[in-house]
Amino acid sequence: MSEKDSKQTLITKEDDQEWAKILHGEMTPDSDNDTHSEALLVRNYLIARDEVVALKEVAVADDLNVLSAEEAKVVYQQASKQIHIRAATPFDRLKRAFVPAAIGALFLAVVILALPDKYKSFLGDSSVDASRASVAQMAGLDYSGYKPVDGAGDYPNMLLIHSGKFTMGCTTGWDDTVGCRANEFPPHEVSVKTFELAQHEVTVRQFEKFVDATGYLTYAEQESRGCVHRDLKAEGHPFVMAPEINWRNPGFPQEGQHPVTCISWSDAQAYIAWLSEEQGREYRLPSEAEWEYAARGGKAYAYFWGAEANPLSANYGSGDEGSQFTTVVGKYPANAFSLHDMSGNLWEWVQDCWHKKYDGAPTNGDAWVDNCNGSGKYTRRGGAWDAPPQGIRSAIRSAGAKTDRSVFYGFRVAHDYTKNKK
């Protein structure tokens, strides 16, 4: 079966409120309202899924009862993605295309994959793995070799990001209520092909393996140029370039599982060239469109977890509510695509050169590498550990020269999707 696109869904505030009421049994659903029908399906599924456990464990019953509208919407959107993209209206064409048993199997498979960890724990690893295989078969993709891991090893762990359509930039009703930058306009629809993206930002351990093998010196280390950091001892904590600051010594404690920092766009390209030769695969930086699509995790909200910033979901704010500096990769929850730290921790370089606005941007998910006007600047995404809440939104973007380096800059790698991954 050929691979097909999914499409991000924007929901209104009214739909959001009605969703919550129906989910919690406080409103009689209108059968002609798609939002009501979807909410009822989620409610019925979760009740059926957790009925036995809920009777025995009050905590589980409470979890179900307080599941937010946004969390529930994500569960259903992920579960119904493969169904809705095959139907002109919900389930109509599906009834003609699949037998009822296949519908039930697919719905259950994708729901299992989309459920939060607190629900997955009821199923066991074998159920999750079987469900992943079912989804892969229906989508015509080879998921073998792609699996989230705890922690980061010597090389980046690549995950498969399924193709889809989404609204890139400042989304109406979500991003704009938090606060958008002028460079996030105009919002525009983009189609993204299936690709691979690293589960984590490149770590100190992974970068050190590259340096040990090649003797590479980062731009900060060459001629002791140094790296930009925040002088916490000076009044006002100004940003300064210090010759002693580099990826080995960012000015704060780091271990092998921390994301490598003080990395320029050029340094990232050097690592990628080595990794490609080392692994026999053509790695690259993600395009800006791929990065935002992956960061949103199939949602239109300002943050992948919902409409408001949450210090339990990302590393930001310079320790006001979270961590003082970088944290180990994977400390904070993953998004729906199993990706960690797509908000905060470090800004991440992407392949695109910098454009001040999205006018004329590609709509096919490719990197935007023309009409750069000789600026010599490249794009970075995601915000860092020092950012305010508005600065870690999925739409946030910034720029820097190819040799710019800072204790706030890192990167993660991408790869075109190819069957029979090595």
Number of beta strands: 12
Instruction: Give unreliable regions as ranges.
Output: 1-6, 49-68, 78-135
Shape: globular
Structural class: alpha+beta
Tally the structural domains.
2
What pattern of helices and strands is seen along the backbone? HHHHHHHHEEHEEHEEHEHEEEEE
Largest sheet: 4 strands, antiparallel
Bin the strand percentage.
5-15%
Instruction: Kindly identify the CATH topology of the largest domain.
Output: paralog of FGE (formylglycine-generating enzyme)
Q: Kindly, what is the distance between the CA atoms of the first and last residues, rounded to a whole number of angstroms?
A: 23 Å
Characterization of the model:
There is one protein chain. The protein is α+β, with helices and mostly antiparallel strands. It folds into two domains: 13-139, no CATH class; 158-416, paralog of FGE (formylglycine-generating enzyme), CATH 3.90.1580.10. It is built from twelve helices and twelve strands. It has helices at residues 13-23, 34-56, 58-65, 69-84, 92-97, 100-114, 117-120, 125-139, 175-178, 204-214, 265-279, 288-296; strands spanning 158-161, 164-168, 188-192, 195-198, 227-230, 239-242, 283-284, 347-353, 377-381, 397-401, 409-410, 414-416. The strands form four sheets. The protein has a four-stranded antiparallel sheet with strand order 1-4-12-7. It has a four-stranded mixed sheet with strand order 10-9-8-11. The longest helix is centred in the first third of the chain and has 23 residues, at 34-56. The two termini are 23 Å apart.
